[in-house]
Design a protein that fits this description.
single chain, 264 residues, alpha/beta, Metallo-beta-lactamase, Chain A, 2 domains, 6-stranded mixed beta sheet, 5-stranded mixed beta sheet, 7 helices, 31% helix, elongated
Length: 264
């Protein structure tokens, strides 16, 4: 068995850890990197593995730094399940489409800025005698339907005519909707098969509604190896959340590897 860390190591955001055995490849979390736009975009677009080779994904909770790249995986050949708690699935029903809408809006705005800059340069370029100078003010008006609404069709058409490279969102709302069809939610403390000889049991992490400590058990060369993945752990004595669980089933008390967050 091998565990490879692809995010949230010596940094925050982008939680993603791959468990590899002879038979299975199970991903723990599939989160977005969040930070400077260019750096985050480069990290988020390139997956360090082939999604089509993954067996399943185990999701600790719904926050996008843990779930936000699931649509990238599901639109690039993933054919397994997203195993999580029931409340995590319900939260992702809102968070993933919202994440897609934000990325679409960001891409639209960047394209608007690119086109606006190109038109500004074009309007100040030297011209032959008698050649009409474009009315930049009128052209810019075409780029917006209102003060806060871009004219996406016009921007797309003009960028194509000017041969400008358009920024594409990491994924779209339809991609997010498709990703949600892969979710397979379960209650806490129920053993769930996540691989050929691999299972997972969720315990309440007390971080947000549905957050889970994932106890993964894998049979390797006839020996049961146990990995505890904490996800994000909450605090005690909060009025609307359960305390993080401290008492595990007897079978889950002897852990071979603990993967634990240290943000708090």
């Amino acid at each position: 068995m091998h565990v490879t860390f692809y995010g949230a190591v010596r940094e925050v955001t982008g939680s993603m850890h791959l468990i590899t055995t002879e038979r299975d490849r199970v991903l723990l979390d599939c989160g977005l990197f969040q930070g400077r736009r260019r750096e985050a975009a480069e990290k988020n677009r390139v997956l360090p593995f082939d999604p089509g080779l993954l067996t399943n994904v185990v999701l600790s909770h719904a926050h996008t730094d843990h779930s936000g790249r699931i649509p990238v995986v599901t639109k690039n050949g993933f054919a397994g399940r997203i195993v999580c708690t029931r409340a995590t699935k319900s939260a992702c029903d809102y968070l993933l489409p919202d994440s897609a809408s934000i990325q679409q809006s960001d891409a639209d705005y960047l394209n608007y800025k690119t086109l606006r800059t190109a038109l500004s340069r074009n309007s100040t370029a030297p011209r032959r005698k008698g050649e009409a100078v474009p009315d930049l003010g009128e052209i810019k008006k075409l780029l917006k339907k209102g003060r806060h609404e871009l004219n996406i069709e016009t921007i797309s058409d003009l960028m194509a005519k000017l041969r400008l490279e358009a920024v594409k969102p990491l994924y779209t709302p339809p991609d997010a909707a498709k990703a949600l069809t892969y979710f397979d939610p379960y209650p806490y403390r129920q053993k769930v098969d996540i691989g050929t000889q691999m299972s997972c049991t969720f315990y309440d992490a007390g971080h947000i509604l549905g957050s889970a400590i994932s106890m993964v058990t894998a049979s390797v060369n006839g020996r049961a190896l146990k990995i505890c993945f904490s996800g994000d752990i909450g605090r005690f004595d909060k009025p609307i959340l359960n305390d993080p669980e401290l008492v595990f089933a007897e079978a889950d008390r002897d852990v071979d590897l603990l993967i634990m967050e240290s943000t708090y």
